[in-house]
Amino acid sequence: MQQEYNNFQAKGIDLIIIFPQKRSIVEKFAKKNQFNMTLLVDEDRSVIKSFDVFHLIGIDAFRIARPSVFFINAEGKVAFAYIGKNQKDRLSINELNMQIEKETGKN
Fold first, then answer.
1. Calpha distance 102→35 (Å, rounded)
2. CA–CA gap between residue 19 and residue 67 (Å, rounded)
3. Rama region for 89: left / alpha / beta (φ>0; ψ in -120 to 50; rest)
4. Helix (H, G, I), strand (E, B) or coil at 35
5. Is the pLDDT of residue 30 over 80?
6. Is residue 104 part of a domain?
7. What share of the chain is helix, strand, coil (3-state, %, to 5)?
8. Residue 107 has pLDDT above 90, yes or no
9. Domain hosting residue 73, numbered range
10. Domain holding 69: CATH number?
11. Does residue 54 lie within any of the structural domains?
12. Residue 19 burial (CB < 10 Å; 0-12/13-18/19+)?
């Protein structure tokens, strides 16, 4: 993930990962995985609720966010959104790179 983040930064794209968990858990995870990117701690889940990706309860989830990607352009508008149907439904790096190229013209 860190290598992909570095590739995004080289294209002028910032990545923010939202963690709807306690700060202590996020800090431990970030340190263990050596994340050097922007992490937003959303303990009260207000951010994931505002993006309508909060998943209260299901077979594969309890009070977490659906896997999601939002591409917000320079004007602050959502230019692309992907919201997974379940916890295993995630946008691949290749699909994300294709969307970035489509939105920015950068490959």
1. 27
2. 11
3. beta
4. coil
5. yes
6. no
7. 35, 25, 40
8. no
9. 2-95
10. 3.40.30.10
11. yes
12. buried
Alpha carbon separation from 72 to 33, 46, 56, 90 (Å, rounded): 26, 18, 25, 18
For 56-83, write each residue's pLDDT tens digit.
776 666 667 888 888 888 788 888 888 8
What's residue 61's pLDDT? 62
User: H or E segment at 18?
Assistant: strand 16-19
pLDDT at 60: 62
Helix (H) or strand (E) holding 93: helix 93-104
Q: What DSSP element (H or E) covers 29? A: helix 23-33
Q: 84 exposed, middle or buried (CB, 10 Å; 0-12, 13-18, 19+)?
A: middle
Answer whether residue 19 is part of any domain. Answer: yes
Q: At 95, give phi and psi (nearest 5°).
A: -65, -40
